[in-house]
Specification:
two-stranded antiparallel ribbon; 8-stranded mixed beta sheet; 36% helix; alpha/beta; 10 helices
Length: 317
């Protein structure tokens, strides 16, 4: 895979609002999952501020309506709110079935992290893998025809630097034989997000769809970290926008949404697909001992194709 050459004038301290400054999204339709809080709200806000018609795809309609009202108060554009539960296949099918017309931007943002105990979906799937990967895989495939109709759609998958803690274990994805570890499980699900972007880029390039993944950075002010207290995990010690000794960029929510918005909206990356970004830049390869960059196993084409096939088979049961 050749490395694209382009220049992006952004970095770790860039905010989502700065990314869309001067960008015109009028006439574009966007879906942001998990958009009732955290970087999902700020991603949706930035897209709406640039003129996009945004749908907040949320598990709690009440929380989504509060987020929509907040976004409207700052952008003067009221997002639509629609219910979807990323671990409920019937909910995903219903949401996709209700959609009609071109879909220009799909931001796969919803996620859970570091569940302290092994938890399973109704199908018996490990819940982080089911929520973070399989739910979004099902959603993107269910909306595929509308992405094609957009003639230039973008799919954005929010991954994490945590992907380096877990390659997809194709022999035991669901932790049926190996001991459960919250970070290995989370890492596997975030690796899956990147592999989905890689294989989606390959499969759908001829249909005008680009597919990229990203690490938003460490954003302490979101609900994603709520399980950490149960294990006494410490937050990285660094000021917002500054990389700490492990290379992790600790960010505000507005900064954390910037890379999602770059991939969703910026003309600077037109045509770029199958890539992984962080700090609003194309990520470098992983350097051992530094929590930055992308692991080889997360962008391996064979792994990506295998995961697509495994995911398709799981959802067909």
């Amino acid at each position: 895979m050749t490395t694209p050459t382009f220049s992006i004038p952004f970095g770790a301290t860039t905010t989502a609002a700065e990314v869309v400054r001067g960008v015109d999204l009028h006439g574009k339709r966007a879906i942001v999952t998990g958009a009732s809080s955290g970087i999902g709200v700020e991603t949706a806000r930035a897209l709406a501020s640039a003129g996009a018609d945004v749908t907040l795809a949320v598990r709690s309609v009440a929380a989504g309506q509060r987020a929509a009202a907040d976004i409207e108060s700052t952008t003067h554009r009221m997002p639509r709110v629609a219910q979807v539960d990323m671990v409920d296949r019937a909910s995903i099918a219903r949401f996709a079935g209700d959609w009609s017309g071109p879909l220009h931007i799909l931001v796969n943002n919803a996620g859970i992290m570091a569940l302290p105990e092994l938890t399973r979906s109704p199908e018996g799937w490990e819940l982080q893998f089911a929520t973070n990967h399989l739910g979004h895989f099902a959603l993107a495939n269910a909306l595929h025809a509308w992405l094609v109709e957009a003639a230039g759609a973008r799919i954005v998958s929010v991954s994490s630097v945590g992907h380096i803690d877990g390659a997809v274990d194709f022999d035991d994805i669901q932790f049926e034989r190996r001991a459960y570890n919250q970070w290995v499980a989370y890492g596997q699900s975030k690796t899956a997000n990147i592999l989905f972007a890689v294989e989606g880029a390959r499969r759908w390039a001829g249909e005008g769809i680009t597919s990229n993944a990203l690490n938003p950075g460490w954003i302490p002010a979101t609900g994603l970290s709520r399980h950490l207290a149960t294990k006494g995990a410490a937050l990285p010690a660094a000021a917002p926008g500054v990389a700490n000794s492990t290379g992790v960029s600790v960010k505000s929510v507005e900064q954390g949404a910037s890379t999602s918005v770059l991939l969703a909206a910026s003309p600077l990356i037109d045509g770029v697909t199958g890539r992984y970004f962080e700090d609003a830049q194309l990520a470098a390869p992983l350097v051992p001992g530094i929590r930055r960059g992308v692991a080889d196993f997360a962008v391996d084409p064979a792994n990506a194709e295998r995961l697509w096939e495994v995911s398709t088979a799981l959802l067909a049961r």
